[in-house]
Design a protein that fits this description.
single chain; 401 residues; alpha+beta; Phosphatase 2c, domain 1; 5-stranded antiparallel beta sheet; 10 strands
Length: 401
C-alpha cells in the first residue's frame, strides 16, 4: 500500500467519527451548513477576538456606552456562524456590557434605565444579526440556484456536443490509393465546424469541410443543420456543383441574414487521379505537389452558402500524382493566437505542411495540430478542424475518362 493510501486509510475512520459526532451533536458544527466542511477555527477566533477587543474597550471607557461597537463582530459572526451561535454571541455581548458598566461605572444608574438600555441594545443587535442572516440565506439560495442552472446547462451542452460528434466520421474511408485523416477540436463544448468524407464508389471520395459564422449555440445548431443536409444528400446525385446549390437552398431556408456557412466541397478520383472542388468562401486549401514541392492555394470561387437563395459557383480541377498532399482546415487553425496576440497564419501552416509532407495523413494532421497548439499554448479562440488527404498511388498510369 502506498503512503498516500495508508494515510487515507488511517484518516478516513477519524473523519467518519467526526462527521458522525457532528450529526449527533449539532452544536459542535459552529459554521453554517454550507461552510461546515471548512475549518472553523479561523472564523471563530476572528469573531471571539473582535468581541473580546470591544469588551476590553468597553471596560476601559466606562463613562460611555460602547454597545454599538459589538455590531461589527456580530455581523462577521452572522455571515459565517450558525444562527444559534450568532444569537448566543449577542447574549454574551450584552452580559459583557452589563458586567463592565455595573461594577466599573463611577455614576449610579437606575436599574430600570440600565435594563431598558440593555434590552434596547439586545433588540438592536438581534435585528442586525437577523437582517444579515436573512440576506446571507437569500444569497446562498441564489448561488445554489445559479449553480444548479449552470450544471444543467453544462449537461445540455455536453449532450449537444455528443449529438454533434455523431455527424463526424468515425474511421477513415477505405479508398485504395488515398490516405485520409480528419479531426475537430471545439473551442468550447459545442462547435460550429464540420467535416466529413463520403465514398461515392470504390475509387472516388467526396469530402466537405465547413465553418459556420459566429460562435456558441447558434453556430452549433446551424452546423448540425449543414451536416444533416449533407447526409440527406448522400443518396442523391453527387455532382458537387449541384450539391453546393442544394446545400445553399437548404441552409438559406433555416438561417437568418447574420449567419452563413463557408464550405469547401472536394472530390478525389483515385483512378483518374483528379481533384475537383468548389470553394464557397472557405479558407483556401493547401495543395502540395510532391514532384516539384510547390504549394498551391485552392482559393474561393463563390460566396458562402446561406447568404442568398441562389448560389452561382465555379468548379475547379487539379491533376494528382503519387505523394501529393491536400490539407483542408478552418480559420481556427490560422487565427490561433499566442500570448502576444500574433496569429499562427498561413506561413506557419505552410511550413508545417512542408515539414510533415513525408508523414502519413494521420501523422501530418497531428503534426499540424501540435504546431498550432504549441503556438497558442493550447488555448484556441475558435474551433479548429483539419482534414488531410495523401495520395498514395501505385506506379501504374491513371485511368482515362
Amino acid at each position: 500500500m502506498s503512503d498516500l493510501a495508508h494515510l487515507n486509510a488511517v484518516q478516513e475512520p477519524r473523519l467518519s467519527r467526526t462527521r458522525g459526532l457532528r450529526e449527533r451533536i449539532p452544536l459542535l458544527s459552529l459554521l453554517r451548513q454550507d461552510l461546515a466542511d471548512r475549518p472553523i477555527w479561523l472564523q471563530l477566533v476572528l469573531v471571539v477576538t473582535a468581541i473580546a477587543g470591544v469588551a476590553y474597550a468597553d471596560h476601559l471607557v466606562v463613562s460611555l456606552s460602547l454597545v454599538y461597537l459589538y455590531t461589527l463582530p456580530l455581523t462577521i459572526g452572522a455571515v459565517f456562524l450558525r444562527k444559534e451561535i450568532s444569537y448566543a454571541l449577542i447574549m454574551a455581548c450584552i452580559l459583557f456590557h452589563y458586567f463592565f458598566h455595573s461594577f466599573d461605572s463611577p455614576r449610579h444608574i437606575q436599574l430600570g434605565l440600565r435594563i431598558f438600555h440593555d434590552l434596547s441594545a439586545l433588540l438592536c443587535l438581534t435585528f442586525v444579526v437577523y437582517v444579515i442572516q436573512r440576506y446571507t440565506e437569500r444569497q446562498d439560495s441564489l448561488v445554489k440556484t445559479v449553480r444548479q442552472q449552470r450544471d444543467s446547462l453544462l449537461r445540455d451542452v455536453e449532450l449537444a456536443a455528443q449529438v454533434q460528434r455523431l455527424f463526424l466520421p468515425l474511421d477513415g474511408p477505405a479508398i485504395s490509393g488515398l490516405d485520409v485523416a480528419g479531426m475537430m477540436q471545439p473551442a468550447h463544448g459545442v462547435s460550429g465546424d464540420y467535416y466529413d468524407y463520403i465514398p461515392i464508389n470504390a475509387h472516388t471520395l467526396q469530402m466537405v469541410i465547413a465553418d459556420v459564422s459566429g460562435k456558441g449555440v447558434p453556430a452549433a445548431l446551424l452546423m448540425s443543420a449543414t451536416a444533416a443536409v449533407m447526409r440527406l444528400e448522400a443518396n442523391r446525385d453527387r455532382n458537387i456543383l449541384e450539391l453546393a446549390g442544394r446545400l445553399n437552398a437548404g441552409i438559406y431556408s433555416v438561417s437568418d441574414d447574420e449567419h452563413y456557412v463557408t464550405l469547401l466541397l472536394a472530390e478525389v478520383d483515385a483512378h483518374k487521379r483528379t481533384l475537383r472542388y468548389v470553394n464557397c468562401g472557405h479558407n483556401p486549401a493547401l495543395f502540395l505537389r510532391a514532384n516539384t514541392s510547390t504549394l498551391t492555394r485552392l482559393n474561393s470561387s463563390c460566396p458562402p452558402i446561406g447568404l442568398s437563395s441562389e448560389e452561382i459557383c465555379e468548379q475547379s480541377s487539379v491533376d494528382l500524382t503519387a505523394g501529393d498532399v491536400l490539407v483542408f482546415y478552418t480559420d481556427g487553425v490560422t487565427e490561433a493566437e499566442n500570448q502576444t496576440g500574433e496569429e499562427f497564419g498561413m506561413e506557419r501552416l505552410s511550413a508545417a505542411v512542408r515539414n510533415g509532407s513525408s508523414l502519413s495523413a494521420e501523422g501530418l494532421m497531428s503534426s499540424i495540430y501540435n504546431a498550432v497548439a504549441d503556438f497558442c499554448g493550447d488555448h484556441f479562440n475558435d474551433d479548429a478542424t483539419i482534414l488531410v488527404v495523401k495520395c498514395n498511388f501505385d506506379g501504374s498510369s491513371p485511368v482515362s475518362s
